[in-house]
Amino acid sequence: MLAIATEERSWGLSVPDDFPLSDGEIDQVVDEDLLSHLRDSDWAGAAIATADGLVAADRTGPGPWIAGGGVLAVGVGVGGAAWWRRQRERSTAAAALADLEQRSGAALVAVDDAIRASEQELSFAEAQFGTQATLDFRTTIDESRALMTEAFTERQRLDDDVPESDPQRRTIAEHIIDLCTRADEALDAKAKEFEALRDLHRRAPEMLAELATRATEIRARVAASRATLEGLSARYPATALDTVDDHPVEAERLLDQAQHHVEQGRAVLETDRAAAVAHARSAEAALGHASTLLDVLDGADAALQAAPVLIAERLAAVDGLLADAATHAADDPSVTPAAERARIAAEGARSSSADPLATVAALQDAETVLASALAPVLAEVARIEQARAALASTISRVDGRIRVVSQYVDSRGAVIGSEARTRLSEAGRHLAQAQQAQDADPVTALGEAEEADRLVASADSFARADISRASSAQQTPQGWGGGWGGGGGWSGGGGSSRRRSSSSRRSSSSRRSSSSRRSSGSRGGRSRGGRF
C-alpha cells in the first residue's frame, strides 16, 4: 500500500512480512521510481512507476501480491481527497461536454433542415403572391440563414485540426446552440403569419366580402365621431384638439381607399387570385387604421379630462430622470441627446397646455428615451452603492481576521512556514489597497477586500497545517504518520529489533535517501515513509 499526503508532502509504503523483495530492493524502487515523481507532484505517475518498479525488481516474477491490482495509492488529507474529487469532476465534466457538443450538432441539423423546408415553401408562395407580398418572409429566412452560417463556422472550429481547451469547446458549443435557437425562433415567429398568407389564397372571396361589410360598419361611425368632435370643440379650445380634429376626414379617406381595394380585388378574383389577395390585405390595413382614428376621437373627451393629471405625473418622472442625468451622466454622450429632448419636452409642458394630448405624448416619449439611455448608468450606480454598503463590514471583518492569524503566527514562531506567511502578507497588502480605494472606487475596493479575505483564509489553513505537522513530528519521531489502527498495516513504533534488522539490509541507494525515509516493522508488515 502506497499513501501520499499531497498537502503535507509526505509518503508511506507498506508491504507484508512475506513480500518477496528485500528492504534494500524496495528502497531502491522508492529512490528510483517513487520519489522523482512525488517531487514533481505527479501522484498518479508515482503510483504507476512504483508498481512497475516492484514488479521489475521481483526476479521470481510477480506473485499473488500483484494479481489483485498492484499498488493501492491513497491520497491522505485535504490534498488527496481533492485529487480524487478532481478526477471525478473531470470525468463528469467530460461527459457533460460531450453531451453539449452532441446537442449542438443535432441543433445544427434540425434548424438547417427547417430553413431548407421554409425556403421551398417560400418559393411556392412567391410564385403565387409575388416577391413584394412575401418580402418579410424572405428577410426572416435570410436572417436565419446568416445565423446558421455563423453557427456552421463555429462548428468547423470544433472539427478542425486546431485543438481547443475544454472551456473553449464548451463556449463554442453553447454559442452554436444559441445561434440555432435564435434562427429557429425567428422562423417560428413567422410561421403562423405565413400559414395565414397561404390560407388567404383559398379564402380570398370570403375575405373580400367580410371587408366590404366591415367598411360599411366603420363608415357608419364617422357621423357619430363628427358629433363628438363638435361637442369637444364647444368645451375645449381649438388648440387642445389639434391632435384629433382631422380624424373624421382621414377616416373617410381611408374608407374610400379600402372600398377601392375591395372592388379591385373582386374584379381580378377569378383571373389573378394573388392580386386579389394583395388588394384584400391593403383594404384590411386601411380599415384598421380608420377604426383606430375613430377610437382615438371617441376617447378624446376622457383623455382630455385626464390630461392635467397625466402631465403632472410625467413631468415629475422626467424631472427625476433629468436630475439623475445631471448627477451621474452630465457629460455622457450616450445620455446628453436624450436629456436635451426631455428638457425641451418638460419646458414645453410648463409653458403651454394648448394641446394636452400632444403634451402627454411628448412627455411620455421623452421619458421612455431618457430612461433607456440612463438604464446602464443607473445600473452601474446601483452596483457601486451595493459595493459601498458591503465594503465597510467586509474591511472590518477581514482586518480582524488578519490580526487573529497574525497573532497566531507570532505565537508559534518558526514552526509556521513560508506559505502561511506569504499569504498573510498578501492579504495585508490587498486589504491596504481596499482601504485606499474605498472612497474613490468602492467596487474595486470590495474586490480587493474579498481577495484579502480569501488569502487570509488560506494563510490560516497553512498555519494550522504547519502546527499539526510539527505536533505529529514531536509525538512520533520514529515513524511515519502514527499508524492506521489495529496491529497490521501502518505502524510508526514497535519492533525495534526488526527496524534494526531492516536497517542493516538497506542497499547503498537507500542510504542516500535515509534523511527522508524511515523503515519500521510490525506484526502486520514492513513499512517505510518520509517527506519529499
Task: Give a description of the structure.
- With 532 residues, the protein is mainly alpha-helical.
- The protein folds into four domains: 2-75 and 494-531, no CATH class; 86-298, no CATH class; 307-376; 383-409 and 419-470.
- It is 75% helix and 5% strand.
- The chain has 15 helices and five strands.
- Strands 3-1-2-5-4 form a five-stranded mixed beta sheet.
- α6 (166-235) crosses α8 and α9 (300-328) packs across α10 (336-351).
- The longest helix is centred in the middle third of the chain and has 70 residues, at 166-235.
Short note summarizing the structure:
With 532 residues, this protein is mainly alpha-helical.
Percent of residues in beta strands? under 5%
Mean pLDDT: 81
Using the alpha-carbon principal axes, give the shape.
elongated
Largest sheet: 5 strands, mixed
The stretches of 5 or more residues where confidence is low (pLDDT under 50) are 477-516
Specify the oligomeric state.
Answer: single chain
Q: Which H/E pattern describes the elements?
A: EEHHHEHHHHHHHHHHHHEE
**N- to C-terminal separation?**
18 Å
Percent helix, as a range, is: over 70%
Structural class: mainly alpha
Q: Which strand order spans the largest sheet, edge to edge or round the barrel?
A: 3-1-2-5-4
**What's the number of extended β-strand segments?**
5
Total domain count:
4
Helix segment tally: 15
The Rg value, from CA coordinates, equals 41 Å
